[in-house]
Amino acid sequence: MRRLIITAISGWLCVAHMGAAQVADLRSTTSFRVCADPANAPMSHKDGSGFENRLAAQFGEWLDLPVTYSWFPSGMGFITKTLRAGTCDVVMGYAQGDELVQNTNHYYTSVFGIVTRKDSALADVDHLGDPVLKDHPIGVIAGSPPATIMARAGLAKDMRGGDLFVDRRVKDPVGRMIDSVRDGSLDAAVLWGPLAGPRIKDDPDLQFTPLLREKSGPKMFYRITMGVRPGEQEWKRQLNSLIRRHQDEINQTLREAGVPLVDDYGKEMLP
Prior knowledge:
The protein is an alpha/beta fold. The chain has helices at residues 2-9, 20-23, 51-63, 78-81, 145-152, 173-183, 193-200, 233-245, 247-257, and strands at 32-36, 39-40, 44-45, 67-71, 90-95, 102-103, 108-117, 138-141, 159-162, 188-192, 206-210, 221-228. It is built from nine helices and twelve strands. The strands form two sheets. Strands 1, 4, 5, 6, 7, 8, 9, 10, 11 and 12 form a ten-stranded mixed beta sheet that branches. The chain has a two-stranded antiparallel sheet with strand order 2-3.
């Protein structure tokens, strides 16, 4: 379950261990080389429009290095074909706690939430145990943390699952769910904030409400880091220093993108 949660948030990545002796000479000193999915909007996209693309550009500026990408669809083989192969040096947007990659310090914390129409009977819902949710069709990504809570709350018959592992160059389960809330096919969708928030931030009809009142596990908030190869301690320390010195600028980029930010304990929304 722990691996499934981390995988769902991090973009469904599959990682492989690599010893320190194997990674000593892999990191580039002439460019900031990023491993990324070319179609993981709104996080990353080959056209550079994702908020992780904008963050990567900022890190490149702070390092005084040009940004280059190793593009590969997230999922099975992602890390093997990119980070492990030495074609790139950092994975943006990686959930804290995966023991098979080395995590930097987290640079933001976000939360799952519920997308509803502003004029909906569900507009005031802020926790999945609310009885008003029953008998309403609700979208959720199968295998994601809130799906467990929804099943426990007796909402299994109301859940309309989206696929967890997809090639997002051809499928967009999150976008499809949001469109279904917009057109009334679904009454709500329970989604990871960084995937949903940027898509609806300027939508006059939809809203995202963070799920900050859940009392049972799994948790609804997660700290997001960058993933680097095991053994690359100096590289991790360099990135950690940049995160610490530029946190306000990072937060501004994320807020402008529409990413819902919470404090490190998932207790309140950050301004």
